[in-house]
Amino acid sequence: MQVVAFDTETHKFGPGRMAPPLVVVSWYDGENNWLTVPDDGVVQMHDYLDREDTILVGHNVPYDLAVMAARDGRLLPKFFKALDEGRILDSRIRESLRLIREGSFQFDPDLGKKPLTSLADCTKRLLGIDVQGKHGEDAWRMRYHELDGVPLSDWPDAARDYALLDAKYTYEVFMASGEQVNEREQTQAAFALHLMTCRGMRTDGPSVEKLKAKLEADVGQAEVTLKSCGIVRPAGSKDMARIREMILACTSEPLMTDKGAVATSEKALREAAACAPDSEAGRNLLALADVSKDKKLLDSFVPVLEQGVQGVIHPGYEVLVDTGRTSSRQPNIQQMPRKGGVRECFVPRPGYVLCSVDYSVAELRSLAQVLLDFFGESKMAEALIEGRELHLDMAAKLAGTTYEDAKARYEKKDAFIKDMRQLAKVVNFGRPGGLGAKKLVDYARDSYGVNITLEQSYDLVRSWEDAYPEMRRYFDRISRLTANGQWFTVEHVRSGRLRGRCGYTDGCNSYFQGLTADGAKAAVYEVVKACYIDKASPLYGTRPVAFIHDEILAEIPDKDPKKRHDAAMELARVMCAAMARFVPDIPIVAEPAIMRKWYKDAEAVYDADGLLECWEPKKAS
pTM for this one? Predict the structure, then answer.
């Protein structure tokens, strides 16, 4: 196969311009290095895409593909075809996979820090060439709009050289990283996620203003309280000595900093407050933790929400972190603040509704699949195959009753079974990643507001492992691989992706987290492809706008209730089919909900004709 690297230089990108106008395309095929103006670049791209013996490579290739597709929409179906065939790859993704395989993605002991994956960093690390000079004050990186329409023969040498070297170094970095397992699938997902970023999200003005007013009121009230108790001085600064005094008044075992001082982070404040929740000091520490979070929301998140009222918010995605999952930024749409009213600020564009589809207990289903793959049997898998809801299954065991009895009582809102199910969530979600009994106490409190003693935590772990005894074999397997502090390499089931230098908890988490991520990314790619190019699909014309690990949020056209319903159901079907490729022996469950704001609690609601209708929160009586 011939490898050809390419790179685009464009106008500046920004809100509403995530695929800005193309200025020039640079190319390198291992021998020849050349530039093409936009129209010639499009013709060249069509030619390469029509050749089955050519692999096209970019560094952050989703951006380049989107820019060229914006120039010529006929390229889009060809891009998807080439991605399907593994003929479009990304040198940045390839290098990330190499670093993850070697266990140095988060920290490189030779560098003494996290290795970066920009083209300049990769060129220096892999080729020994320091190209930072070309990114100095006189670099053309952010100035190519000045040359739009100028004949290439009239370009300054520096502008030509900058563009040419980008393609050349992309090629050489790609070759130096070496072929990596799973790079085709990661590149597919990266392109799909970038199209989501380009689409972006909108927010509702009145909802944003209501949230802002509530935050300002809460912060103002809290600061009055904190000043009255001496935590905040009259001028507004914090009295750190007073804060540490209160922490020590609540607990004799506070969290400590690396330098041995009493920690005052939000987590430290909440843990201390939880030790004496009814004391004045505990209440004040909790108020301080809450106001710190509210101020951060007010100062950092609200301005982003305001941007989406008149314009567009473009959450960005990193397709790959060492677990195999994705991350999100500006804003982190995958970790929304829990404050009520934040999520509800997001609304669809006019003429659309929002549709959310998320997998039911995706990581536990993946874990059950891993257990079957490893041991050939699994009580957890049996429960899921029989259609039992896993939290209720565990709740029944904790309550000492049958699943059928627990289910009937839960449907009648039995308080005891409800509490047991909440406790089951703690251990179902906390224990598989290797959390011990002591840390499970903290996890229960911090994540679910459930307070248990250390003794109760030990009992909970034993009960859980009695219910799913194959988990003891799973933990023993990881323990043997990490005995005496040694590292091991995780080979992910189905994808074969490698993660090096794993310790005990990394190893416990990686198998099922990585498997879920593989299935969810495959779903994102198939969904986006159907939405953008498959005119026969009920999803055609729908636009996915956010990916939240095991959930896809999309804008569905709202003109026809039947078509709206069909699109929502097809979204769920495609997601389940994609996940089933990676979790083939466990039933995959995902149900759509449509809404006019993004509600976390939204559920499927059907009208008299069996069609999905918009879910609305119940009004307070």
Answer: 0.94
